[in-house]
Amino acid sequence: MAAAASESVAELAAGLREVGYVPGDSTALVSYLATKLGKPILVEGPAGVGKTELAKALAKVFDRRLVRLQCYEGLDEAKALYEWNYRKQLLRIQAERQDTAWNEVQDDIFGEEFLLSRPLMDAITSEQPIVLLIDEIDKTDQEFEAMLLELLSDFQISIPELGLVEARSHPIVLLTSNNSRELTEALKRRCLYLWLDYPELDHELEIVRLHVPDLEATIARKLVEIVGMVRDLDLKKPPSIAESIDWARALLLLGADDIDADVFRETLSVIVKHRTDLDIVAERVGVKLGPASVSAP
Amino acid sequence: MADAPAAVPAGLAAQLIAFSEELRAEGVNSGTSQLLDAFAVLAEIPWADPGDFREALAATLAKSQEDRRIFELVFERFFFRAAEQAAIRAGVREHADEERGEGEGKGDAGGELDLDELRRQIAAALQAGEESLMRDLARLAIATFGRQGQHSGVIGVDVQRIRRALGLRSEPRHELPADDPRRAGVPREALRRFEALMRRELERGQIERTAKLPPSRPLNELDRALPSGPLQDLAAVHRVVAQLKRRLKTQGLQTRGHARHAHVDVRRTMRASLQTGGVPVDLRFKPIRPRRPEIYVLCDVSTSVTSASVFFLSVLHALHDSFRKMRSFVFIERISEVTDVFDRERDFRAVSEAIASDAGVADVSGYTDYGRVWSEFRALVEDDLHPRATVIVLGDARTNGRDPRADIFGQIAARAGRTFWLNPEPRLYWNYGDSVIATYEQHCRAFECWTTSQLEDFVKALTQPIHAASLISR
């Protein structure tokens, strides 16, 4: 599959579709370019539009292992790249304390054997080509971002004691960001940029239908329309695509044959997760779905 | 990658470089390496498809959402002009293929079209939102009205005249028969698009007549700004404040590693050394306690900041969602504590109504009296203020000619750890008229703050390490 899927944009789009990811117009194109040029993709967009899913889907399409690094504030090299295994080094020193010259031990204990590799190191040294997902890069500090630069442009890491570790295969790299902080120009410069937004009505309908094929077409359409309406409101957390799918599943389980005001009120909590948001949505959208006017708005 | 440009014909390469220069002129940061990427990308895709071409360029040249928006505008403008320029140079006139283009237009009965029929068709096309059909009809409409000799020479005027003549309006019109597509009103977005198409076609005609390009116009602020309503603003404010909260919370963590703050925690180091056979390999440090944010916010709600006070109240509202130890005050002539109101009411509208009705801050004149506010504030919180507290004032520093009493404000600022002033006026207007921000600025850091991006700047300043911040404020 790997060879076939990378031949053209259309084939990659078809491949993504096959593994359950419905790519938008530019998604397939940018992913295709990234694989061709060997550049990382910086994916930005609101929460829950399928940024992480894209990485998983790409891993499936190309039949590669997915290495994931979840970023958080305070993440440092020791947790992302590598760490020396102190305990093992100590044991080594203690085991040969008597008759080994210091130089030998020193050379010995800073070998790859004593290196604890973390996700990024893992990605670099992997024999098989992989997909590397650096999730929520905007949560880290700028220092960490700077450290990534070497990795992203040349796919190599320099370890002072060991020298340069170069990638054995060319990984596909995805960085996701929720835009909670402006990333540095240097990082952006090295990436292809992809902005994912909430999908258009038809696009989302396709996604819902793909994941919940048993739901009736009319209900699915109405569901997507309502979700679109809810997103237009001023909410703390607009419903994501995953939540639309959850809602569709919930409706299917409940055996609802239409979305009227009652059903909407009862299942509202699937798509809206804040108390204040619940009130706003119930007030603005619930009214429009009065039991009398069941026709689509 | 260096040999990539050779794969692209020289003409296009030059155009792309010119395009990226134009992008740079509009403030998009597109350097040489981005340009090289763009060339590399173009080698990978069939660039006969305008959609792919645009997306591929955008992925390499525009690296944020704002950049992307500017990119779209510049892209459209640049390639339109480039095509017209080439047409002029090659001496291509449109008359020859115009006949053919119209022949393909739907229902075009030999060029002479009934005006009512045209109206109906255009309205139907707008309802359907079909781009190519809309473009054909825009040309047809211009041709029809052009024949009637109605060119004013000013494109904007012509567009509006044609729109009126076509009877296109976004409001529903119930007097029309039920089968008329205009009855339900034309979708606003489609109408805007149609107007843009007409404008483009008119420009094209004008260029052809005069055989030269009009001077290029830089994008103005209005084109550039992201479309946003007040509701979205509120959501944006909440987002920024949520970020502020997160930053404040982890502030201690960041400074924890700095060596000069580190004190070795002997007990924990000894414990950790048990793992390594009694050798203290891993030093444990006493944690630096994160600064617990204790915030006093004073918010001006008088008439001179009416437009800004909704923004301010939403900032206040969002801050309240995030911080436990926070006291808020609103003031005009007097000051009144509204911490309870925010604690009680979760809804933003209810809060602003409650403040408007029973905060009791207006006294006689309804004009802000900073001097009185400071003295009252000092009386209220004097005992509670301490060096770890942060005071934030939201106001325009317009005293209406009254005594600013900067001395009292100075005392407050001296007692509190940090004092910030957020001014809703552009910096240009500061210290003009009765604005006395300069006298207050001696005691605090003042920020202009009327957009959420400026609020973000403030957040950055507020959350930078304490010692650095205090150096700047002195």
UniProtKB/TrEMBL annotation, chain B:
Residues 91-112 are annotated as: Disordered. It comes from the Bacteria. Residues 91-109 have a biased composition (Basic and acidic residues). This is Carbon monoxide oxidation accessory protein CoxE. It comes from uncultured Solirubrobacteraceae bacterium. The lineage of its organism: Bacteria, Bacillati, Actinomycetota, Thermoleophilia, Solirubrobacterales.
